[in-house]
Known about the structure:
Order of helices and strands: EEEEHHEHHHH
Strand content: 15-25%
Amino acid sequence: TEGGFDISQFTIDWENQKVLCPQGKVSVYWKETKRSGQARILAKFDKSDCQICPSKNLCTRSRIYGHRELTFSLQEEHMALQESRRYQKTPEFKERYAKRAGIEGTISQAVYALGMRRCRYRGLAKTHLQHVLTACAINLKRVVDWLEEKPHAQTRKSRFAALAA
């Protein structure tokens, strides 16, 4: 749900196998399951608590069960994922990711515009030569575009995004 509660807003008590929702209600069910071959934990909240909750529209859209079900990874994986998500919000991550975004653009240009998905040659020496020449071609194209004062391409919009605009 847009603007609704996500897993980080729930408090998980791993020892007592309970989950506390943002409104202070405690889960009534906890079971380890397998979904798509992955070990997961399924926690459910009492229907009577969820039906009268003032934040129900932020929590669940379930019309069948009428209560919140929460599925999350086992403790070690869940904690690592939450830590990773917190790190992604830091300025350090954003700075590092900005570098990666530039590199991804260059790799994309090499793959789609210059055929780098597959190597034309066998052997490390010839493969290395192809990589060096492709890098030179990318640089040459960028210099020509700069000299001709061509603006950078705008970010492409999906058809769905164009319809929504």
